[in-house]
TrEMBL record:
Belongs to the metallophosphoesterase superfamily. YfcE family. Residues 1-145 form the Calcineurin-like phosphoesterase domain. Keywords: Metal-binding. The keyword Metal-binding applies. GO terms for molecular function: hydrolase activity; metal ion binding. SUPFAM superfamilies: Metallo-dependent phosphatases. It comes from the Bacteria. Its cofactor is a divalent metal cation. This is Phosphoesterase. Its EC number is 3.1.4.-. PANTHER family: VACUOLAR SORTING PROTEIN VPS29.
Amino acid sequence: MKAFIISDSHGWESELEKVVNRHREEVDILIHCGDSELEGGHSALKGVKVVKGNCDFGSSFPDDLKETVQGVTIYVTHGHLYNVKMTHVPLSYRAEEKGAQIACYGHSHVAGAFMENGVIYINPGSIRLPRNREEKTYCICEYNKSNATVTYFDYNGNVVEDMVYHFELN
């Protein structure tokens, strides 16, 4: 299973569409973790699973979603409802409730991935307004029975060399 994950594009339209279209044909699912600040029918979000962020006022997007792709359960939320800027614990409870193997979130604009209790947590960072790094990031997660790899890319599609995470699965 291969998932494209992006977040916090904050009103970017053509830029978001360019990045999504770059990977559209090579992944099994396209995910936006909120704060797109776009309407649901916008062409930049065509075919993308999107959740509502704290800046998505009046949006019809759901607060969270659960998708199963090739047997892998993915939980997606923006993160503001789970206080992710302070701790990942409330998010971990929700991911466990949903039976997720992968939990995707945004909100903090801080890119990173880690594994805890068998769940891989992925924050793709922000494609528009990154924090703690200069690169504007998104990522792709490749997940199979024995391992998972989360690779981060900058806006131009270059791999961010120090942000490739490998996880061994049980």
